[in-house]
Specification:
single chain; mainly alpha; 7 helices
Length: 126
């Protein structure tokens, strides 16, 4: 295992290993550090997971603005789950100003990729 990867995929994977404690001691902070490194290089899944991390109710470092920031980055790259979560943020006004048009836009983008929960979101909210 490369302990100082520069490749975004390797950084993301190392983050996963730290978060789940596979082959290394479980260390959420190190996991988030490596996800951030990958996300800064444009890794959509890392961006999405950082968005979820910063929006987690159990996270003492919860930051809705950071969550929306990372979800936006993932959504703009076509990450279907990121698009849905960003739509939810807009629907609830979490980390962004409440905007039902943007909520519907991102929910629709996700649903167009076949994301079933996005279809449920659209049917429930709109």
């Amino acid at each position: 295992m490369n302990e100082n990867p520069t490749n975004a995929d390797e950084q993301f994977n190392l983050g996963i290993m730290y978060i789940i404690g596979k082959g290394v001691l479980n260390d959420l902070e190190k996991g988030v550090y490596w996800w951030t490194k990958a996300a800064e290089q444009g890794h959509a899944e890392a961006q999405y997971r950082l968005g979820l991390y910063h929006n987690d109710e159990d996270n003492v470092k919860k930051d809705l603005e950071k969550a929306a920031y990372w979800l936006t980055k993932a959504a703009e790259q076509g990450h279907a789950a990121g698009q849905l979560q960003l739509g939810v943020c807009y629907a609830l006004g979490e980390g962004v100003q409440k905007d039902l048009e943007k909520a519907k836009y991102w929910g629709t983008k996700s649903a167009e990729q076949g994301h079933e929960k996005a279809k449920e979101f659209l049917a429930t909210v709109f």
